[in-house]
Design brief:
The complex is a heterodimer of chains A (333) and B (327). With 333 residues, chain A is of the alpha/beta class. Chain A has 10 helices and 12 strands. Chain B has a domain of 179 residues: MetI-like (MetI-like fold, Orthogonal Bundle). Classes of the chains: A alpha/beta (333), B mainly alpha (327).
Chain lengths: 333, 327
């Protein structure tokens, strides 16, 4: 593996990724043509509603989607230029945990109840670094300390840990082999707010220290603002807006993103009512043609029902909306 | 843990006593007269009374019950058979190993055949291998053991002349009885393993293991299987228990002088000491197996172990230790 300081440039490039679930003659289009790039040392936040396809994107990158029912129907996932979708299935375990690892949503069920915590951390190290058991255990103890757990709890079982501690262990497992890319799938949604802050801070520090990349999946804009460099807004399996935190937070372009920000209660303004986005996300078994957001959009035109354009605002800020196309009558707001 | 073991062993005492009292009562109320079966129909009323008096059969229920309990649990003497005056305990102990061998081999076969079969079926859910394993399991469960035993005899003993059709003179005499006896258990254990595995391989920690880069095989046998095993072990435990008393059919077909064979004969002959002694012995064995299964639980699942160890004292000790380590 390269030295941590030398890592730079493009780490991950997801191009036109599509995933669908096929079950009972129904096709659920979970991810539809998602593309984004991520460099070493960067943190990307994927924000979206429940069921928007965030977790599916993450699991597709690691190739741990349950197949059946999930099917990758197109696209490329380039890790340092190598397409992960071309890697034979029996070679994937060498990449998982070693180059890419994942922190799961629910710490209560993410740990094996019959294995010692230390064993679960050391297992990955043993597998990837091909070192002795004692060495792996030593490393595991260090990592355990790193996430703020005393090393004499090394031989305890998950049921002896609290929720926050379990999530730390899950993070320790993911970080055990210094992965280049860490995917955190709502790592804090099962924790209460104070612990949330601690866990996020810890993850951010470790990521910066190791110059690895982070994909943080959440539905909390506050979390994204605090810990990410870039943000992708996911809606109905598409990234409808993508850009740096500054770009997206200060000048949201997509009506959905704007709507989301309007729905956040403001600390400074005294507002009686929040303005929600009317309607519900579309049924993924029956997605509208054209713009997926059109049925809920206040700026929609006839054109939105047929097609959707991707508009680039420069510096990587892009948005999928017809509003910015030349043909659109009213133009952007 | 030691405390728990002792507690559990003490709890066995009322269970075994209860079984003994129950079986004694059932036998007491069962119609039929052992004296008639011993002496035949031609005896006089005086002869009948005399034999009954000798055997203590003319005494009231409670007297006989206490005599039986005292004899069994204090003197450790199971008495002698009404029919041939042989010592029951001696008979049981020469016969028990034969039954126990069949039961243990069946159990072992289930572990090494049925569990991998169930795991394979679960991992290929919906595929050809799955259907194949399920069909195999259903056939194994549905075929009566006496029939398969006779088919085995026809094929392997009479047609091919590979294995003996009766008796226990050689180690290979056990092959056919064990094979015939374990078939049903194989099927049910495989099905049980399959359904448990199906549940477990969908759980989050299996995905965690996969994301860690653990190879599929290791995931199955090291991460998933231990979690799926608890109900399977319960199943195996009861199967072993019932196999001890339930090899009757197989023992009859293969003419094996085991415990089951001995007891069925005794029941039809109203040979009370044999029935009571046999049932008590089996009850003790069954209790021990269940006890062992409980201990295996603790070995497999630390959460169960923690419950067993849940005494206040231990917890205090642990926190003390931890406190020191922090300091």
């Amino acid at each position: 593996m390269e030295n941590a300081n030398q890592k730079s440039g493009r780490l991950l490039s997801v191009q036109n990724l599509s995933v669908q679930y096929e079950a009972n003659n129904e096709v659920v289009k979970a991810v539809n043509g998602v593309s984004f790039d991520l460099n070493y040392g960067e943190a990307l936040g994927l924000v979206g509603e429940t069921g928007a396809g965030k977790t599916t994107i993450a699991k597709a990158i690691l190739r741990i989607l349950p197949d059946p029912p999930a099917k990758l129907t197109g696209g490329k996932i380039l890790l340092d230029g190598e397409n992960l979708l071309d890697v034979p299935a029996d070679k994937m375990p060498e990449i998982r945990g070693q180059r890419i690892s994942m922190v799961f949503q629910d710490p209560m069920t993410a740990l094996n109840p019959v294995k010692r915590v230390g064993w679960q951390i050391a297992e990955g190290i043993r597998l990837h670094e091909h070192c002795s058991k004692a060495e792996a255990n030593e490393r595991a103890k260090e990592i355990l300390k790193l996430v703020g757990i005393s090393e004499d709890r090394f031989r305890e079982y998950p049921h002896q840990f609290s929720g926050g501690m379990k999530q730390r262990v899950v993070i320790a497992i993911a970080l055990a082999c210094n992965p280049d890319l860490l995917i955190a799938d709502e790592p804090t949604s099962a924790l209460d707010v104070t612990i949330q802050a601690q866990v996020l801070e810890m993850m951010g520090e470790l990521q910066k220290a190791k110059n690895s990349a982070l994909i943080l999946i959440t539905h909390d804009f506050g979390v994204v603002a605090k810990s990410c460099d870039k943000v992708g807004v996911v809606y109905a399996g598409e990234i409808i807006e993508f850009g740096t935190i500054r770009q997206v937070f200060e000048e949201p372009k997509h009506p959905y993103t704007k709507g989301l920000f309007e729905a956040i209660p403001s600390m400074s303004l005294d507002v009686d009512r929040l303005s929600p986005i009317r309607g519900l996300p579309p049924d993924p078994t029956n997605l509208p043609s054209g713009c997926k957001f059109a049925p809920r959009c206040k700026y929609r035109t006839e054109r939105c029902r047929q097609a959707v354009d991707e508009h680039d605002f420069g510096d990587g800020h892009r948005c999928r909306c017809c509003m910015y196309s030349e043909e659109h009558g009213e133009g952007g707001k | 843990m030691t405390r728990y073991i002792i507690k559990r062993l003490l709890m066995l005492i009322p269970v075994i006593l209860g079984v003994a009292i129950l079986i004694f009562t059932i036998m007491y109320f069962t119609p039929g007269d052992p004296v008639k079966l011993i002496a035949g129909d031609t005896m006089t009323a005086e002869q009948h009374d005399q034999i009954a008096h000798e055997l203590g059969l003319d005494q009231p229920y409670f007297t006989r019950l206490f005599k039986f309990l005292k004899q069994t649990f204090i003197d450790f003497d199971l008495g002698t058979s009404y029919i041939d005056n042989s010592s029951v305990s001696q008979q049981l102990f020469t016969r028990l190993p034969r039954t126990a061998i069949i039961a243990s081999v069946c159990c072992l076969l289930q572990i090494i055949i049925a569990i991998p079969l169930g795991v394979t079926a679960a991992t290929h859910q919906g595929g050809f291998l799955d259907s194949f394993c399920i069909v195999l399991a259903i056939i194994a469960i549905s075929v009566p053991s006496f029939w398969i035993a006779m088919m085995f005899i026809l094929l392997f003993s009479l047609r091919l002349d590979w294995l003996p059709s009766f008796g226990i003179d050689h180690w290979y005499s056990y092959i056919l009885p064990c094979a015939a006896n374990c078939l049903m258990g194989l099927g049910s254990t495989a099905r049980q393993t399959r359904s448990q595995m199906l549940e477990v391989i969908r759980s989050d920690y299996v995905v965690t293991a996969r994301a860690k880069g653990v190879p599929e095989r290791t995931i199955l046998y090291s991460h998933a299987l231990p979690n799926a095993l608890i109900p399977v072990i319960t199943h195996l435990g009861t199967q072993f228990g019932s196999a001890l008393g339930g090899t009757v059919v197989i023992e009859t077909v293969f003419s094996i002088p085991g415990v089951g064979y001995y007891m069925t004969n005794a029941i039809s002959n109203r040979d009370y000491p044999v029935v009571l002694g046999g049932v008590t012995l089996l009850a003790v064995l069954f209790c021990l197996v269940v006890f062992l299964v409980d201990l295996i639980y603790a070995f497999i699942d630390p959460r169960i172990k923690a419950q067993y160890e849940g005494s206040q004292k231990k917890r205090l000790k642990k926190t003390e230790k931890r406190g020191k380590a922090y300091a």
